[in-house]
Amino acid sequence: MGKGGNVKATWKSFIALLCVLIACIAWSPAVLAAPAVAETAAGPVLASQISPLADNKTPEQIANDPVVKAAMGAAWADSSADNATTRHEEGGWIYEDADGNLSVQRWPSGNRSSIDPCPPTPPPGGHVVGEFHTHPNWHPPDGKDEAGKEWKQGPSDEDKDAKTPGTTGIVTDRSGNVTLY
Amino acid sequence: MRHRIWLLMGVTMIMLTFPFAGCTGGGGITSEEAITIATEAVENDGVMSLDGRVTEIEDELTYWHVYFPFSSPITRGGAPHVFVNKTSGAVIDLYYTE
Description:
The complex is a heterodimer.
Chain A: H1 3-33, E1 37-40, E2 43-46, H2 59-64, H3 66-78, E3 91-96, E4 102-106, E5 114-115, E6 127-135, H4 157-162, E7 168-173, E8 178-180
Parallel strand pairs in A: 6-7
Antiparallel strand pairs in A: 1-2, 3-4, 3-6, 7-8
Chain B: H1 2-17, H2 31-45, E1 56-59, E2 63-67, E3 76-77, E4 80-85, E5 91-96
Antiparallel strand pairs in B: 1-2, 2-4, 4-5
């Protein structure tokens, strides 16, 4: 490559850098001004409504909270896990209020192996810190149900993908396992 | 001379790519056939409906992994997973997540 080629290459690099610089300047105010959002059950929710465990509650503390444990127990009972015909998933949102107290809002009953959350309505000053649901199909020890159908214990990839980022997911199953994700 | 080299490289790339365009994975069962086999297997098993689901397929060494996650991103739930032998087309595993 001759001297002319070098000059041309230098100009190309300069123009490319200039374009990147202009793009950065043009985008930064828009990005900074846009409120951070995350996808939840009812669509986007402001990040301020989601707790990044700011109150130092660990997933284990959330799962062992008496209010949450009681709600998960009730959800399991409502799942009719022992009835092969009517077993279904139950679940709910876990909220933390301004004083650090946890509360639960149950979701509408789901189907045999899925459930759709209701839109979250945290208490005033509160936010979503987690969610839980039941897995009534997996049978110990090998996961096969009465009909010999094979189930994996989960949580499924879909469970993980649907969960609100920064919150705790909890799944309960018939072996008594409480799985956090 | 240089354009001939580029032409040769292009033809070589096309020849290398073309046999895999049908996604046979080197075996007898194409990805399309595997999806058909998996769909029939799930429908015949009668555990999960395929309504509201999308079809995903992964190319493994000796089998196709076909699964049907929900199309709704908010739904918590599982999917049927079917493993189809690439050579014989036999369903070698069918399980469900929840």
